[in-house]
Amino acid sequence: MTPTATRTGIVHLTELAPQISGAEMVASLVPPPQFTDATFESYRADPAYPSQQDAKDALMAFSGVAAPAARTGLFRRAKKGPELKPGVYLDGGFGVGKTHLLASIYHAMQARRKYFGSFIEYTALVGALGYQNTVELFRGSDLLCIDEFELDDPGDTMVMTRLLAELVASGTRLAATSNTPPNALGEGRFAAQDFLREIHAMAASFQTQRIDGTDYRHRALDGHAAVLTVADYQATIADAATTGLVSDDAFPALVAHLATVHPSRYIRLIDGLSLVGLRDVAPLTDQSAALRFVAFIDRVYDAQLPIRATGESLDLVFPEEMLAGGYRKKYLRAISRLIASTLD
Length: 344
Prior knowledge:
By secondary structure, the chain is of the alpha/beta class. It has helices at about 20-25, 50-65, 100-110, 120-130, 130-140, 155-170, 190-200, 230-240, 250-260, 265-270, 285-300, 320-325, 330-344, and strands at about 10, 85-90, 115-120, 145-150, 175-180, 205-210, 245-250, 275-280, 305-310. Helices cover about 40% and strands about 15% of the residues. The protein is globular and about 60 Å long. The protein starts with 8 loop residues before the first strand and ends with a helix. The model is unreliable at about 180-190 (pLDDT under 50).
């Protein structure tokens, strides 16, 4: 078989209008590239935060790969563990390994039909196929993994909880991570009561597992995203374009363009890229635009694409009034990912 030639050159994302079908959305419901080989063994729990090892042990049991429980004494039976529920919800701050553990569940669980996607990917699928068609698509599946379950959009949350309730009733097991506004129970803290209220009768189906820790990408967010001079940026883009496909866009123009592309299509927007270039970065002034940019950066980070930029440091694009609001946790996660992506 002839290998596919690597695409090279420069593209402008603002000139692209990608499309993606429901079938393509379903086919993409697998862990992102950096978690293709994620396992429980490769998850390194920080001894300073015992909840990380506790979560790992609980999730191994949920996946059916936990070691037998230790006996309490000579000839004594092992203690009976807690009854396993059909769903597990990972609650923790950003960068503590929730997605790694979620992908580990996906890889470890022996299942014929299993899916892994972000909350926005599942809601986009409902939008593309319709609610009932989506229910029928997933009915009979063994496992659904949902990364960054959103609790800040009541409409989408209720659609998803209805969907999950129907799937649990048909035997599907669920694993999810949280993305909760922090103003309910404190920074990085899962608003458990909000979640339980939203899922109503499903509450008894979920075991909530708390994971504490500091962001593995940047143990302190006191640094800044790398900023290039105009000359260095131009040289970097030109050099990268000789070996791969790179994008080059003015930041304000790209932010405006994202409003014309459904977030479910952002993954197609960056398809084939090896690097993302952003010129003239400036602070965002509109919260809707900021949230779209967060969704875009999530896709860029999942694809492990480096970012090169000029202008303002990318970690400063969310002004203080945004950081003080209900979407603070989303913005902090994006800042963490922006810093990591510009330092690659």
